[in-house]
Amino acid sequence: MGFQSVRDLDVRGHRVFLRADLNVPLKEGRITDATRVRETLPTLKHLLENGASVVLASHLGRPEGKGFEAAYSAAPVAAWLKEQGLDCRLASYVNGAAVEAEAAALKPGQILLLENLRFEKGETKNQEDFAASLAKLADTYVNDAFGAAHRAHASVSGMVGHFQKDRLAAGFLMEKELKALAKVTENPDKPLVVIFGGAKVSDKIELIQNFLGKAEAILIGGAMSYTFLRAQGFLIGKSLCEADKLGLALDLLDQAQAKGTRLMLPLDHVVAGAFKEDADCAITQDQNIPEDQMALDIGPETVAAYAAEIRAAKTLLWNGPMGVFEMAPFASGTLSMAEELADAADKGAFVLVGGGDSVAAVNKAGVASRMSHVSTGGGASLEYLSGLELPGVAALSR
Ligand code: AMP
Q1: Measuring CA to CA, how many Å separate 270 from each of 234, 275, 284, 306, 388?
Q2: Per-residue pLDDT for 1 more than 90?
Q3: pLDDT in tens, 31-90
């Protein structure tokens, strides 16, 4: 894939800088959901068991970038790693002479967890002096932080150039994510059907564009549907619409036709008079929405049509909810898609779910474990699927 895997890296006796995504939710100094740290354990343990010492680093929340802030300290992560029986100590800070001495004192099998990288503004600004100070801490660099790969930050991008090319590698999580994404974007088993939902067309333009001519069908749901329908002259009542994107919507429909991708829109809708959980709901007769109503979910005819497309596909990608799935009366379109996709995966299709809301939806539907892959990095997977180069991946592949 253009970069080395940590599997093929000789790490015995080396000191490895491991950039991980340990950006876990914290409450009163404790981790409330350790999923992210747990997901990087395979790479971490592989390094330690093969005789490396590890300088482990991540960002954590959004501190100001003006030095240490107790609320954003990496201390709870160090405590969690120790609870797992790992030999981990917390560094006195992010970088600098004291931290260099702490790193130099590491023995094989030991971890030094750096303080929150974002205590230093040089991290997000990708400042060269900060990047160089991080690179001093190790002779080998491994990036397992897929969730941060779309950010050209010092620990993801700038510092990587300081290592010899053969001392760079991607961790197991990074590799797993990129392989899953590539299954959809590079020679997917056909038919390829992608399902895009969510609030705004403007957020998904590049994503849609990148699949025109590649996917057999693009199934559209969520609020962005109404901009497409309005552009074609349907009545959309009080539904959300990006009035300044009507021309763009028509252009995407034209491009789809020219490139042989069926861009499908909802055939019916669940509507209500107000954006409220207890509002009276109805199902429309057709694509039009009454003047005093707003569409908040796709209707049953749409679910059936989209399900037929899903059942015929060999590769499927889902990003974005079909309606306001956070409210029970408008969740059924989204939950039905989740069920259909899980069934498709059970029958052997490759099903990738990416993006925060769709991941929340498959969890809500209780079908996450049946999918082929659920991407952990919302922003990074969205950028990759939009055809953009991820700085963190580019740095490893230089
Ligand atoms: P996004 O962040 O673009 O993926 O959009 C997700 C949000 O869009 C969710 O919070 C949904 O509740 C919302 N959404 C989806 N469909 C609709 C709709 N028909 N009307 C209003 N909001 C919607």
Answers
A1: 16, 12, 7, 15, 35
A2: no
A3: 999 989 999 999 999 999 999 999 999 999 999 999 999 999 999 999 999 999 999 999
Pocket test for ligand 1, best of 229, 265, 324 (most atoms within 8 A of CB): 324
Residue with the smallest CA separation from ligand 1 atom 10 is: 324
Minimal CA–CA distance to 155: which of 180, 167, 177, 137? 137
Give the tens place of pLDDT for each residue, 146-170. 999 999 999 999 999 999 999 999 9
Task: Give the pLDDT confidence score for residue 173 in this predicted structure.
Answer: 96
DSSP state of 26: E
82 lines ligand 1 (CB under 6 A): no
**Domains along the chain with CATH numbers:** 6-175 (3.40.50.1260), 187-385 (3.40.50.1260)
Q: Active site includes 200? A: yes
Report whether residue 323 contacts ligand 1, using a CB cutoff of 6 Å: yes
Q: How far apart are CA 44 and CA 55, in angstroms?
A: 10
DSSP letter string, 316-372: EEEES-SS-TTSGGG-HHHHHHHHHHHHHHHTT-EEEE-SHHHHHHHHHTT-GGGSS
